[in-house]
Design brief:
seven-stranded mixed β-sheet, binds zinc ion
């Protein structure tokens, strides 16, 4: 853990697809970055399944670049692990070892990932894989490209899409960084345009509404909601969220 002010030295958000992080936890990431933490944004896939009117390679390249632009807005590092969009499997040893490696590289004090019951199969698989990979990351006899981490990080589950079935346990007031979160999401032009074309859905408006809804619940203008993964050696008495 970091300095005496309680700011973590390193945090990582690991989501399934480009734009998930921006919709669900970019406010907290922006606040961590402001406080001086090293912030990593990682997507397991390049989101090539998210836009269906272009070739997979082309859309993957575009969406990686959009995620890079978003991360740059808060000085975060971005990593895409290149797993197949729509094919994230927690039981796959190669996929698991790539997630272990990014955790070993970032050496996070705090990890963010999807809720275990979110709507998308990739989100649910990512949630389980990240929780499990944090455990594997400390086991030095499990060899990957980077040395084992020293201790288990706290794992926070992000809100579900539209908040369905998700009751936050802790809130983060993101009012001060709301425009940063919105600008990060706005980097995902290809997805925003596709959702508008395909579903007549404005994801910027959707995300603002969710921020306001979670804000109303905790008495601020904009908020994000989180739950901590409860297990032995993972619970803590410390407030780790910004
Ligand atoms: Zn997603």
């Amino acid at each position: 853990m970091g300095d005496t002010c309680g700011v973590p030295q390193s945090v990582i958000a690991i989501a399934a697809h480009p734009d998930d992080i921006e919709i669900l936890c970019a406010g907290a990431m922006a606040l961590y970055a402001r406080a001086g933490a090293e912030v990593w944004l990682c997507t397991l896939t390049a989101g090539e399944g998210g836009v269906n009117d272009r070739a997979p390679d082309e859309i993957a390249r575009i969406r990686r670049a959009e995620s890079e632009s978003s991360a740059a807005l808060i000085g975060a590092r971005y990593a895409c692990l290149g797993l197949p969009d729509g094919g994230v499997l927690n039981g796959d040893p190669d996929m698991r070892s790539r997630v272990v490696d990014i955790i070993r590289q970032a050496r996070p004090d705090v990890v963010f990932t999807h809720d275990p019951d979110d709507y998308h199969p990739d989100h649910r698989a990512t949630s389980a894989m990240v929780l499990d990979a944090c455990f594997t990351a400390v086991i030095s006899n499990t060899r990957t490209g980077y040395p084992a981490t020293g201790s288990l990080p706290a794992v926070f589950y992000m809100d579900t899409l539209a908040g369905t079935g998700f009751q936050p346990e802790q809130y983060v007031d993101i009012t001060a960084v709301w425009t940063t979160k919105r600008d990060m999401l706005a980097c995902h032009v290809s997805q925003l345009e596709w959702m508008q074309r395909q579903e007549s859905l404005d994801f910027l408006e959707f995300t603002e509404t969710m921020g306001q809804f979670r804000g109303i619940q905790c008495g601020v203008r904009y908020a994000e909601g989180y739950r901590i993964a409860h297990a032995w050696q993972r619970d803590t008495t410390r407030r780790l969220l910004p």
